[in-house]
Amino acid sequence: MKILLVEDDKTIASGLEYSLEQEGYKIILCYTVSSGKKALAEIDFDLCIFDISLPDGSGYELCKIAREKSDIPILFLTACDDEVNIVMGLDMGADDYITKPFRVKELLSRIKSVSRRYDKENGQKAILKIGDIQIDTLNAKVYKNEQEINLTALEYRLLLTFAKSKGQVLTRGQLLEGIWDVAGDFVNDNTLTVYIKRIREKIEDDPQNPTIIRTVRGFGYRIGDLNASE
User: Fold this and answer.
1) 40 and 115 share a domain?
2) Residue ranges of the DNA-binding region (predicted)?
3) Which of 122, 148, 179 is a domain's end point?
4) Listing from the earlier edge strand, what are the strands of the sheet with 213-216?
5) 35: number of Cβ within 10 Å
6) Single pTM value for the model
7) 3-state DSSP call for residue 206?
């Protein structure tokens, strides 16, 4: 997920940038309205986080521009729990806000919550494709070359977690969290290895030399396209 973060406090900004990148997000960091406008004009983002008070304007301006460009989740950062500011931001199209000071875990929770809400409301790609693998998210079915592949609920959820993060490196912790959300069962690190092995056996042409679920040594895993080259 590519996130635009506009925050003029450089200490807060750098801390958020580091923490969010550790969670696998790609962060474009800006400190002003003008640089935020430039980023919005040049890059397609999946989510925006705007501080309301900025040195050359306000996050409201950026919210308006972002809303005119696309329908993506927008979160506001505000220094005070002021009902007027909050209502104004929400009326302009923001999805949520968070009051400073806040914990990074709280922000992560808000990001995940609003992203899930958008997934449900927009149907977020009924069919996800990875090479010759197709994931029918409406019916929770997976196909390879139009032949259905039988996956367990946990295997399906794990593959879906990979597919929705195509191009990103996912840590084992992030993958375990994705499985826990749906199964509610205890899944440890060793069990995750087993599930990845089983999925590879079902979707890879050569499970011993995987080209779809690729290992990034020292970091985790990355979903790759069958036609991709490294």
Assistant:
1) yes
2) 125-225
3) 122
4) 169-170, 220-223, 213-216
5) 15
6) 0.53
7) coil
